[in-house]
Amino acid sequence: MSLKVKRADPRVTLIKDNLDFSKQTLTPYVVRVPITGLYRRAFKGSQMDTQLVYGSKFNVHIVKRRWAWGQEVPATGKSGYVGYVPLSALGENPGKPKHRIKTLRAPVFVKPDLKSQVRILLPLNAQLATTASVGDYYEVFGVGYVHKNHCIPAKSRGGDFVAIAEQHNGLPYIWGGIGPDGLDCSGLVLSSLRAVGRATPRDTDMQKSALGKRVDIVSRLSGLKRGDLVFWNGHVGIMTNSKTLLHANAHHMSVQAEPLNIAARRIAKIAGPITSIKRFGWY
């Protein structure tokens, strides 16, 4: 019997109708489409809370019509988001991923030949159960062939997450998005950090609590460095140098780089002042 619970974060806890399902048996699936939404409710038009890329693990507890309710199992994290995913986006686990996509998009070919038909485009951080090496390509189970230049080992860690974030410049702002078709502020941070093998929670408040070490907020916002994360209530951006903030934002409806002082004045009118600046010791 499920136990009633009083307090837990429903975003990352298997709670439904005030019942805790975290100890119950879940059915493991993986995402078998390039990218899919994870929704708050099981109907079209429901709010999308986040997205899952190809190869992401998703443990299913309840199937409701054409929807699966369960929890993401991140490759670089402990507790993923809970919600509804279209059942059509899921499939059986093809095995442990050996590689992941390192570019914003990577074509998967029908044959190990760049002139062959492109079957699908896979997004950054897609997890690949590769089954064979064929010349310059890896064969991806049940899908096709992806060029080795677009892949890195699944457990690879390292690289410049800010440079990866900068590749997203100009992409549309989409609430809940984490992919190359559009993303939100914390989605940009998550996608960029996952690309260098760093565990990252999904939302701004979680990221502020879990990531980096606090940096004092001084007058004129001096002393900042490339890679610092700047937080407001409900918003986050990445410093690309001591004065420039890169962030997915609703003002521009896109990912944009702009002077931090200009962004801070504008954001303060809606979200208040900067609440925290965090810095990574490893960057």
In brief:
With 283 residues, this protein is mainly β. 12% of the residues lie in helices and 38% in strands. The protein has 3 domains: 3-91, SH3 Domains (SH3 type barrels, Roll), CATH 2.30.30; 99-153, SH3 type barrels; 161-279, endopeptidase domain like (from Nostoc punctiforme) (endopeptidase fold (from Nostoc punctiforme), Alpha-Beta Complex).
CA(first)-CA(last) distance: 46 Å
Task: Say which CATH homologous superfamily of the largest domain is assigned.
Answer: endopeptidase domain like (from Nostoc punctiforme)
- Helix/strand-derived category reads mainly beta
Level-2 CATH architecture of the largest domain: Alpha-Beta Complex
The whole-number mean of residue pLDDT values reads 93
The count of β-strands is 26
- Regarding quaternary structure, what we see is single chain
What's the CATH C level of the largest domain? Alpha Beta
CATH topology of the largest domain: endopeptidase fold (from Nostoc punctiforme)
Query: What is the string of SSEs from the N terminus onward?
Result: EEEEEEEEEEEEEEEEEEHEEHHEEEEEHE
How many domains?
3
Strand content: 35-45%
Report on the biggest sheet. Answer: 6 strands, antiparallel
Percent range of helical residues? 10-25%
* Gyration radius, in Å: 20 Å
Residue stretches low in confidence (pLDDT < 50, at least 5 long) are: 1-6
Which strand order does the major sheet show? 21-26-22-23-24-25
